[in-house]
Amino acid sequence: xxxxxxxxxxxxxxxxxxxxxxxxxxxxxxxxxxxxxxxxxxxxxxxxxxxxxxxxxxxxxxxxxxxxxxxxxxxxxxxxxxxxxxxxxxxxxxxxxxxxxxxxxxxxxxxxxxxxxxxxxxxxxxxxxxxxxxxxxxxxxxxxxxxxxxxxxxxxxxxxxxxxxxxxxxxxxxxxxxxxxxxxxxxxxxxxxxxxxxxxxxxxxxxxxxxxxxxxxxxxxxxxxxxxxxxxxxxxxxxxxxxxxxxxxxxxxxxxxxxxxxxxxxxxxxxxxxxxxxxxxxxx
Length: 284
Known about the structure:
Layout: H1 8-87, H2 97-103, H3 111-119, H4 124-192, E1 194-202, E2 208-210, E3 213-221, E4 226-233, E5 236-244, E6 249-251, E7 260-267, E8 271-279
Helix pairs in contact: 1-4
């Protein structure tokens, strides 16, 4: 047994060759799997695109079918209208009543044939009229819906115009009110714009013109610091009796004139000193 020798190179070469042959086989299997995956992915893409194209074509076919049905329904409606227009002049045809009267005296003849003959023609008629009527119902509904849309739009437009008119009316009213308030404010401002006219009145019969009026001192109470003045306007006397020092005496000389204010700042023995406030536009 010790004398037997083996050639190790033979076994090593065989293992190397097997390894070398197995490596390309493994690479081939991997490439095959990758190729199959790519083929499946490409097939999936092609399938999805084909399904989408099929769906699009089916949708287009449905749309074309609906359009065709609508066109057929419109044609049927036109035919029905023409038929109605053509049938309308037929009502005066009841003159054929004597024909029915002539048929009555012949009951002995086979009535079954007459009934069958009278029953057979009406059968195709309802079939002809019912089919367009059923298809005309949706068309009539569509036309009614189409006709109702402009009426609804017109109603909405009318409502908006009415609202705009109301808003415009309210705005005009507010503008008128603002104008009135402005006029009132201007009047108040014109009344509040006053000018003080100083005077010194001596007791006696002498009169002193101050602004739009004439003043005359009637009496003076130096101890009580009181006085009485007569205000003349257009030869009319407005007597201000028993007034106190620094008292603001408001009086009106006529109906449509703003009020005047008289204030006495000093009460002397036979004299008073003060001022008369008049509107700026009436100081003359």
